[in-house]
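ok so heres the complex, two chains, lmk if somethin looks off
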Amino acid sequence: MKTLVIQLARLGDILQTLPALHAYCRSNSTEKIHFLVRKKFSEIAHILPVCDSVIEMDTKVILEASIFAGEDGVEDSLSVMQKWVERLKAEGYEKIINLSFSPFSSYLTSLLADEGVEVVGYTRHEDGFLAIPDDASAYFYGQVGVNRSNRFHLIDLFASILGVELEDQDWNLSKNYDSKKLENYIAFHIGASNPKKSLSQTAIVGLLRAIVKSSDIGIYLLGGTEDIAMAESIERQLGGSKIKNMVGKTNLAELIDIIAKSKAFMGADSGPMQICNLTNTLCINFSNEFVNFWETGPRSYKSFVCYVKDFSLLDMNEVALEIKTILETGSSEWIQGDRLGYHGAYPTTPSQDFQWSLIKAIYLGEEFPALESSQFARAVVHLNDVNDISLHHLANFQIGNRQQASVLETADKIMDTLATEVEEIMPIVYWFRTEKIRMGPVPLTDLIIQYMDLHKKLKQILELYLKPKWEITEDLL
Amino acid sequence: MKEQVPTTQVSNLAKALQEVRVQVAEEIKINNFSKKATLQLALAELIKEQVNK
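and the predicted structre for the whole thing:
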């Protein structure tokens, strides 16, 4: 059995794929497993190898003709891509697992998956529409992302798509480091892929000044070449021998080495932060509203997220003192649980908690949460009305009746609008929408039956909140 | 750590994207959704990723 696992996203996603991929390879030792990544981000897959072979996709080679000749280069680009796809197909994969969620990866998976090949993850139906064969990927499509209420970590979602359970051995992939011989410094990553995610220079200087003042620990500044100017400015402002500026001076292997040997890593949600999960480095992650820490926060032992809406509101002396305590005693009231704790403004609202409970009820079969919001109650009534209209037209559907098709289309649009106006209803609408998308190209009569089944399922959920036990009174409505 | 794509390259890629879109529309018109159309759409998406960087 030969399997291709596709991860065509960026470094951070590859880093979060590795524990799950390690678990998959461990659980399927008789399979030959190839890992497809972009050449630009492939280095990490070679540094921390977890499967039989790493295959690189060289975007520049495929696009070279188009880059230099525009429309006149398209045929050449198509030819290069075709040959590359044929080479991959010649490997004879019996199973393809696509862990990327991009349109490109779905088309590629579709091209690679001939009849008889088992496919997990995004691909395409024969009519070109998106196909999502597995429930875990469908969950990702419906519920994952900033401004959604998912609280499953990406690493767990990847494991779920791969159908494996993570064990301790799947986490610490960089096994060459002795946790008892850590060096006395903090690895501090000053940048992030998006500046909105990272601490400002002023905040970094304030925090590092407080750390240096209250402790004898050294600070290694880390970052890419685009962070060099800021690093030099930070270094100038702080001075002293405790600061070591490594920004723009490390390759990936050196970066892993520095993080692995550090007593702690500090920084925003970024690729380097994800390294902590693989080196079991204590991570202090600064997070704000521009990133969903539930999905991508640190998972190494005793790590925690320091969450604030605005980083300038952080009391740096308080943060520095707590970090000193953690490094000296290994514990803190900020650390709740083994793998993820939180400090700062508690980052959830009752509405978000309600949505998370709804998600668990829909996808995990847990109990549906009690009705608390009048807005949600109103949205349920409206959604139910619209759903009833759809059910009526589906039950009486006449092929060729454009008016009915238009009504059904409008009903779906109203549901989408409700989800944008009442956030508590989003998990239900997004689940419904995703399940509708998952229906493949089938004869119209079969499609009507499938649609009706789905609308009936939706009604069952809505009726939980329409029953008298919730006491929906005129006042509430 | 975003990579900057030079303006000329972006312009050429945008032209290439337009051309692939024309080609895929023709292909679907003639052969419905074929493997060739899938390949063209894959290329279009790959170009879009670069243009939108």
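quick notes: Chain A has 18 helices and 14 strands. thats all i got rn
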